[in-house]
Amino acid sequence: MLTADYVVGLVDGEGSFAVHFNQSQRRRAKVEPKFCLKLRADDRLILDELCDFFGVGKVYIQRDRRPNHSLCFRYEVNNRKELREVIVPFFREHPLRFPSKKRDFDLFQQIIAIIERGEHLTEPGLGMARQLASQMHRGSLDALDTLVQWERGVEFNDLNHRPSSHEREERPKTLSQAATARLLIGTKS
User: Fold this and answer.
1) Is the pLDDT reported for residue 143 higher than 60?
2) Residue 77: helix, strand or coil by DSSP?
3) pLDDT of residue 1
4) What would the DSSP string read from start to end of 2-52?
5) Cα dihedral sign for 84, 87, 90, 96?
6) pLDDT higher for 152 or 63?
7) What is the average pLDDT value for the chain, to the nearest integer?
8) Each residue's pLDDT tens digit, 74-92
9) Beta strands in the chain (DSSP E)
Protein backbone atom coordinates (compact mmCIF):
# COMPACT_ATOMS: atom_id res chain seq x y z
CA MET A 1 0.00 0.00 0.00
CA LEU A 2 1.33 3.41 -0.99
CA THR A 3 1.68 6.28 1.46
CA ALA A 4 1.15 9.97 0.73
CA ASP A 5 4.88 10.67 1.19
CA TYR A 6 5.79 7.90 -1.25
CA VAL A 7 3.35 9.28 -3.83
CA VAL A 8 4.75 12.79 -3.46
CA GLY A 9 8.30 11.50 -3.97
CA LEU A 10 7.27 9.40 -6.95
CA VAL A 11 5.48 12.32 -8.60
CA ASP A 12 8.35 14.69 -7.81
CA GLY A 13 10.67 12.36 -9.71
CA GLU A 14 8.51 10.90 -12.45
CA GLY A 15 5.18 12.75 -12.61
CA SER A 16 3.99 15.47 -14.94
CA PHE A 17 1.24 18.08 -14.94
CA ALA A 18 0.45 19.04 -18.52
CA VAL A 19 -2.03 21.12 -20.49
CA HIS A 20 -2.72 20.64 -24.19
CA PHE A 21 -4.50 23.21 -26.33
CA ASN A 22 -6.47 21.41 -28.98
CA GLN A 23 -6.82 23.15 -32.34
CA SER A 24 -9.06 20.52 -33.94
CA GLN A 25 -12.56 21.61 -34.87
CA ARG A 26 -13.75 18.01 -34.39
CA ARG A 27 -12.97 17.98 -30.67
CA ARG A 28 -15.12 19.84 -28.20
CA ALA A 29 -12.49 20.36 -25.51
CA LYS A 30 -10.02 23.09 -26.40
CA VAL A 31 -8.05 22.92 -23.15
CA GLU A 32 -7.07 19.44 -22.02
CA PRO A 33 -5.33 19.19 -18.63
CA LYS A 34 -3.62 15.95 -17.69
CA PHE A 35 -1.74 14.49 -14.72
CA CYS A 36 0.43 11.50 -15.59
CA LEU A 37 3.34 9.39 -14.57
CA LYS A 38 5.31 7.06 -16.85
CA LEU A 39 7.37 4.05 -15.77
CA ARG A 40 9.04 1.09 -17.43
CA ALA A 41 6.89 -2.01 -17.93
CA ASP A 42 8.82 -3.73 -15.12
CA ASP A 43 7.33 -1.18 -12.71
CA ARG A 44 3.73 -1.29 -13.88
CA LEU A 45 2.56 -2.63 -10.51
CA ILE A 46 3.44 0.74 -8.95
CA LEU A 47 1.19 2.48 -11.47
CA ASP A 48 -1.68 0.11 -10.68
CA GLU A 49 -1.17 0.85 -6.98
CA LEU A 50 -1.13 4.58 -7.73
CA CYS A 51 -4.44 4.19 -9.58
CA ASP A 52 -5.88 2.37 -6.55
CA PHE A 53 -4.41 5.00 -4.19
CA PHE A 54 -6.18 7.88 -5.95
CA GLY A 55 -9.24 5.89 -7.03
CA VAL A 56 -9.24 7.71 -10.37
CA GLY A 57 -7.41 7.53 -13.68
CA LYS A 58 -6.23 4.64 -15.81
CA VAL A 59 -3.03 2.85 -16.70
CA TYR A 60 -2.18 2.68 -20.41
CA ILE A 61 0.55 0.96 -22.38
CA GLN A 62 2.95 3.31 -24.13
CA ARG A 63 4.86 1.70 -26.95
CA ASP A 64 8.05 3.37 -28.08
CA ARG A 65 9.70 2.00 -31.18
CA ARG A 66 12.82 4.13 -30.87
CA PRO A 67 16.07 2.24 -30.41
CA ASN A 68 17.16 1.78 -26.80
CA HIS A 69 13.70 2.59 -25.41
CA SER A 70 11.83 0.01 -23.43
CA LEU A 71 8.14 -0.69 -23.19
CA CYS A 72 6.47 1.70 -20.72
CA PHE A 73 3.15 2.21 -19.02
CA ARG A 74 1.56 5.54 -18.18
CA TYR A 75 -0.85 6.36 -15.37
CA GLU A 76 -3.12 9.21 -16.51
CA VAL A 77 -5.87 11.33 -15.06
CA ASN A 78 -7.43 13.63 -17.64
CA ASN A 79 -11.01 13.82 -16.40
CA ARG A 80 -11.50 17.43 -15.28
CA LYS A 81 -13.74 16.53 -12.35
CA GLU A 82 -11.25 13.93 -11.08
CA LEU A 83 -8.38 16.40 -11.48
CA ARG A 84 -10.32 19.10 -9.63
CA GLU A 85 -11.73 16.91 -6.85
CA VAL A 86 -8.95 14.36 -6.27
CA ILE A 87 -5.55 15.24 -7.75
CA VAL A 88 -5.41 18.99 -7.03
CA PRO A 89 -6.65 18.67 -3.41
CA PHE A 90 -4.16 15.85 -2.74
CA PHE A 91 -1.17 17.93 -3.84
CA ARG A 92 -2.46 20.98 -1.99
CA GLU A 93 -2.56 18.90 1.20
CA HIS A 94 0.71 17.07 0.41
CA PRO A 95 2.95 19.62 -1.36
CA LEU A 96 5.52 18.55 -3.88
CA ARG A 97 9.10 19.15 -2.80
CA PHE A 98 10.99 19.84 -6.03
CA PRO A 99 10.72 23.57 -6.82
CA SER A 100 10.27 22.91 -10.55
CA LYS A 101 7.48 20.37 -10.00
CA LYS A 102 5.86 22.60 -7.37
CA ARG A 103 5.87 25.50 -9.87
CA ASP A 104 4.31 23.31 -12.57
CA PHE A 105 1.60 22.18 -10.16
CA ASP A 106 0.85 25.78 -9.12
CA LEU A 107 0.45 26.78 -12.77
CA PHE A 108 -1.61 23.64 -13.45
CA GLN A 109 -4.05 24.37 -10.64
CA GLN A 110 -4.44 27.96 -11.87
CA ILE A 111 -5.40 26.59 -15.30
CA ILE A 112 -7.83 24.14 -13.68
CA ALA A 113 -9.43 27.15 -11.91
CA ILE A 114 -9.75 29.02 -15.22
CA ILE A 115 -11.51 25.97 -16.69
CA GLU A 116 -13.75 25.62 -13.63
CA ARG A 117 -14.91 29.22 -13.99
CA GLY A 118 -15.55 28.71 -17.72
CA GLU A 119 -13.07 31.45 -18.61
CA HIS A 120 -11.24 29.14 -21.03
CA LEU A 121 -14.26 29.54 -23.34
CA THR A 122 -13.40 33.22 -23.90
CA GLU A 123 -10.44 34.56 -25.85
CA PRO A 124 -8.95 36.40 -22.83
CA GLY A 125 -9.36 33.34 -20.59
CA LEU A 126 -7.90 31.02 -23.22
CA GLY A 127 -5.00 33.46 -23.65
CA MET A 128 -4.38 33.47 -19.91
CA ALA A 129 -4.42 29.65 -19.80
CA ARG A 130 -1.95 29.53 -22.71
CA GLN A 131 0.31 32.05 -21.01
CA LEU A 132 0.33 30.05 -17.77
CA ALA A 133 0.95 26.77 -19.61
CA SER A 134 3.87 28.29 -21.52
CA GLN A 135 5.65 28.74 -18.17
CA MET A 136 5.40 25.04 -17.30
CA HIS A 137 8.37 22.67 -17.64
CA ARG A 138 10.89 25.49 -18.00
CA GLY A 139 14.45 24.40 -17.42
CA SER A 140 13.53 20.86 -16.43
CA LEU A 141 14.34 17.52 -17.96
CA ASP A 142 10.59 17.26 -18.60
CA ALA A 143 11.14 19.62 -21.53
CA LEU A 144 12.61 16.66 -23.42
CA ASP A 145 9.57 14.48 -22.79
CA THR A 146 7.17 13.69 -25.61
CA LEU A 147 4.30 14.68 -23.31
CA VAL A 148 5.69 18.21 -23.14
CA GLN A 149 5.83 18.30 -26.91
CA TRP A 150 2.22 17.06 -27.00
CA GLU A 151 1.02 19.72 -24.58
CA ARG A 152 2.78 22.48 -26.50
CA GLY A 153 1.18 21.25 -29.70
CA VAL A 154 4.45 20.88 -31.55
CA GLU A 155 6.43 17.84 -32.48
CA PHE A 156 9.81 19.40 -31.68
CA ASN A 157 11.34 22.76 -30.91
CA ASP A 158 14.83 24.11 -31.53
CA LEU A 159 15.96 23.50 -27.96
CA ASN A 160 15.31 19.79 -27.78
CA HIS A 161 15.16 18.47 -31.32
CA ARG A 162 17.10 15.25 -31.55
CA PRO A 163 16.93 14.05 -35.15
CA SER A 164 15.59 10.59 -35.70
CA SER A 165 17.50 8.14 -37.87
CA HIS A 166 15.60 9.09 -41.02
CA GLU A 167 16.41 12.80 -40.48
CA ARG A 168 20.15 12.35 -39.92
CA GLU A 169 22.51 12.68 -42.80
CA GLU A 170 24.04 9.39 -43.76
CA ARG A 171 27.23 8.74 -41.82
CA PRO A 172 30.47 8.31 -43.77
CA LYS A 173 31.40 4.67 -44.26
CA THR A 174 35.11 5.14 -44.94
CA LEU A 175 37.90 7.35 -43.56
CA SER A 176 38.20 9.19 -46.87
CA GLN A 177 34.47 9.98 -46.83
CA ALA A 178 34.81 11.26 -43.23
CA ALA A 179 37.81 13.43 -44.18
CA THR A 180 35.91 14.86 -47.15
CA ALA A 181 32.90 15.60 -44.92
CA ARG A 182 35.15 17.43 -42.43
CA LEU A 183 36.64 19.56 -45.22
CA LEU A 184 33.17 20.41 -46.51
CA ILE A 185 31.94 21.68 -43.16
CA GLY A 186 35.22 23.43 -42.36
CA THR A 187 36.31 21.50 -39.28
CA LYS A 188 39.76 20.13 -38.54
CA SER A 189 40.47 16.66 -37.24
Assistant:
1) no
2) strand
3) 87
4) --HHHHHHHHHHHEEEEEEE---SS-S-SEEEEEEEEEEGGGHHHHHHHHH
5) negative
6) 63
7) 81
8) 999 999 999 999 999 999 9
9) 15-21, 31-40, 58-62, 72-77
Distance CA 57, CA 34 (A): 10
Q: Collect all residues with Cβ–Cβ distance below 8 Å to 34 and sequence separation of at least 6.
A: 16, 17, 18, 19, 20, 76, 77, 78, 147, 151
Count of positions (residues) in the chain: 189
Considering the domain 4-185 in this protein, what is its CATH number?
3.10.28.10
- CA 185, distance to chain mean position in Å, is 36
* Domains in the chain: boundaries: 4-185
**pLDDT above 90 coverage of the chain, percent:** 58
Each as own residue / partner, the long-range contacts of residues 20-26 (CB below 8 Å, 24 or more positions apart, any chain) are 20/150, 20/151, 20/153, 21/126, 21/129, 21/130, 21/133, 21/151, 21/153, 23/153
